Amino acid sequence: MRNNQNKLYPLEIALLLALAVTALWGAWSLQRQDRLERKTIRLHVVANSDEAADQALKLQVRDRVLTLAEDILTEADNRRDAMERLEAALPAVETAAEEEIARQGYDYAVTARLEQTEFPHKTYGDFALPAGEYTALRVVIGEGRGQNWWCVVFPPLCTTAASDRSETAIAAGWEQDDLDLVTEADQGYVLKFRSVELWEAIRRWLGK
Q1: Which of 26, 44, 67, 104 matches a 20 to 30 Å C-alpha distance to 73?
Q2: Which one-letter DSSP state was computed for residue 155?
């Protein structure tokens, strides 16, 4: 009698192939996500509280910080250069934020630092960024217990006109593939985000 114990049947072969394809897709997705994270600096402004006045103040501080960050980074050649410029300017960021807070009639303290921060999937008009752990310029107002505001300071995508966004991103070191991932030029970007985020969650669960 023929021994069939080690024989693979069509369904088993199909399942193994599906697992292999899934693993390859996951590795590619994570590589794409990691590359995007290594080229991006986010902005994270945290309000003192969720009271309407504190939330309105957060937006005033955001505008002041964005203007200052744009001045600081206007000549940054790459992300490393941008990080060094922001690190050196952290005291100036805190001072500018506190000046704006005082101008609005409050006396909250501010802390500004560069740190790794978990971000959710976020859409900004005609572009979006997948969830993940990004380096961020994190500005915390007062007790920092309110809703926060996210954007991108490098490349300065949130302060650049849509018509100039591609040129700005490429000049900062992004590639066309990065742009395709985050803009509607790639109609499948929402599906790709979900894939990236799924594999990112699996990687964290496995203890990257």
Answers
A1: 104
A2: S
Q: Which of 173, 145, 146 is nearest to 82 (CA)?
A: 173
Using CA atoms, how far apart are residues 137 and 127, in angstroms rounded to an integer? 20
- Give 125-153 pLDDT, tens digit per residue: 777 787 788 899 999 999 999 988 888 88
Structure tokens of 153? 């300071």
- Domain ranges for the chain, please list them: 41-202
- Rounded CA-CA distance 169/179 in Å is 8
CB atoms within 10 A of CB 134: 22
Q: Name the phi and psi angles at 113, rounded to 5.
A: -155, 160
Do 137 and 69 meet the contact criterion of CB atoms below 8 Å apart?
yes
For residues 110, 114, 119 and 124, what is the CA-based torsion angle, rounded to 10 degrees?
A: 80
